[in-house]
Specification:
The protein has 266 residues and is mainly α. It has a domain at 4-185. It has nine helices and six strands; from the N terminus they run ββαααββαααααββα. It has helices spanning 15-37, 42-66, 69-72, 95-113, 117-142, 163-167, 176-198, 204-221, 242-260; strands spanning 4-8, 11-14, 83-84, 87-88, 231-235, 238-241. A two-stranded antiparallel ribbon has the order 1-2. It has a two-stranded antiparallel ribbon with strand order 3-4. It has a two-stranded antiparallel sheet with strand order 5-6. Strand 3 and strand 4 (87-88) form a beta hairpin. It is globular, with a radius of gyration of 19 Å.
Length: 266
Amino acid sequence: MHRELLRIGNFSIHSWGVMVALGFLVGLWYSVRRAKKMNFPQQHIYDISIILILCAILGSRVWYVLTHLDEFRGHWIDVINPFQSGGFGISGMAMVGGVVGAIVSALLFCVIRRINFFEIADIIAPTFLLGMFVGRWGCFLNGCCFGRPCNLPWCVVFPQGSPAGYVFPHTKIHPTELYEAFIDLFMFILLIKLEKKHRNFVGWSFWMTFLLYGLGRAIVDYWRWYEPQEIVLRYLGGNLSIHGTIALGVAALSAIMLIIKPGKKI
């Protein structure tokens, strides 16, 4: 595990940030390919991608802070202070907040540009799953978003300098980062296959993406470790967090939309 790829003084390049950036680039590359195939203006993809990246990062940070208020109580400047723990950088992001931030910013972009939101969403949304596959490897290298203790052959021990190693020192735990990475990759491939035969209205790919993502996230939640205040339900030896509950809600909404087919027919 390599949390830092490069350090110069107090400035360091973290593997998590590199992999997340790579995930965004892979998603952008595939979105442009899809736009060309669907005869959609590629410039709109380039323009919206910058907004999505910035708002996804902002949304991830805001969501993390809102669900970890005690961590910042009494020193709120740390919410935006990049100089912490003797280094440069802000740690503490929550993927659900990033998704919310990206969708809200995309809606505003489409209103301003007078673009059908679901036309561009059908192009970009599936690449979110591909980007997540890449980005979750960054979580694994960083030792965050980790699982609970286990004794299965593929479970791993993280070094004590990582978040996982701090919570569970010298303990084998579920590599939930990789569980989600491979589930996202499977969901992406499945979506692309289904899209060829079953996409019958504008918005189908968007809603199917979040149906699959929500289900996958809730499945991984079962093995993931969370702080007590983040857990909504404990069941059959596992748990469901606030994030997993919201993911299930998004999946349910997406399933309803796929049934009623509210968009323009294709």
